[in-house]
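Case study 2.
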Amino acid sequence: MKKIILSLYLAVFSSVGMAETQTGLDIMQEVKLRDTGWEDMSARLEMVLKNRNGDKHQRFMKMKVLEMQGDGDKSLSIFNSPKDVKGTAFLSFTHALEADEQWLYLPGLKRVKRISSSNKSGPFLGSEIAFEDLSSFELDKYSYTYLRDELQGAIDCFVIETKPQYEYSGYTRTIIWVDKARYIPVKIDYYDRKNSLLKTQIFNDYQQFLGKYWRSSNMSMENYVTGKSTQLLWTDYKFKNGFTKRQFDKNSLKRSR
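Prediction:
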């Protein structure tokens, strides 16, 4: 009898675990589904770097993104100012389980540098944003577990744990707070390779475009190890610009000037 009870106990809790995993996947599938079909996007971006002492430095760039069907998105970022980074361009091709392809054009050296797959956890031009963070969200890149429901401020959220399913990630896991009403992220905690809380990203001031797609105009990333933070201020969002793949090849890095 004890063996039967134990077997039932294990079966019940095993099924609960499976349900939670499936629920987490279902939620993130809905997040992806609601942000599909925008074709392409452009925006202007102000990056505010803040060090441990509160000193600030600003950088300005423009960004273009091409939505890809059956693969990750392509993005191109071009820095306009200040002078020391003007003309720097970053090109990224996101993939699900294969290594992302990323290149950085450095105008001072007049060369294109490929970012190594094993170095995606490095900082993007001195910010608290890692190269890995610049990839588009692709479902197959992670596994998902529903943890709980919880308020983030006044927003009722699902709380989902994700674990990377690809090599060379700088994170063991992330915890994402997803707005139940709009299925958009409002907060992400990133845990490093030692499973310690490394940094937190907050999404504020969402706006809706084309009657469907939500974009944050104010994102912040705080790093608890360095004491630094990076704020991203987005303006001039435009969708369905008619971009083509040719505008996102490696030659476009040099043409972008």
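The chain has one domain: 32-255.
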